Hints:
By secondary structure, the chain is α/β, with parallel strands linked by helices. It has helices at 3-7, 33-44, 60-71, 102-111, 116-131, 139-155, 164-167; strands at 18-23, 52-57, 79-83, 94-100. Helices cover 44% and strands 14% of the residues.
Amino acid sequence: MSKRAAGKRRAAPLQPLALSVRRAVRTGWLPRPAQLHAWVSAALGRAAAGRELSVLLAGRARSRALNARYRGLDHATNVLSFPAGAHLGERGPVLGELVICPAVLRAEARKQSKSARAHFAHLIVHGALHLIGYDHERPAAAQRMERREIRTLRRLGFANPYRASARARSAP
């Protein structure tokens, strides 16, 4: 094979993200697994290739129990991120798990005058970014994370979730 032909070889296609969705709630609107997959994949980009992610859609009691156990906060929360292997600095095929509480999410969306769909997309993107090392513990890190969230959500057709005027608009 000539050097020219060798240089034109294409890299093997990236394996898609494997997403598992478990519903532990039965009421209210929830996005379809394909929609969750699209939002997570957009957030993670190439970091999603060949990885596995689990999403648990949990009720308030489960969210509260997990938040109390892992964060020391005794209330239900919108999203929790559990990176796999984070304590060992590993990077295996399992990326981690997101726990979303749709009841908290819907209440927040109403309070912020956002559509449930827009807020769901934002929290999925936000949680997924935590799984690849983004955080908002320091101002510079928070700004970096917010910029990535805004850019990702814009590509998905959603308004900036941090702008008050964007909260009133619904996404497609």
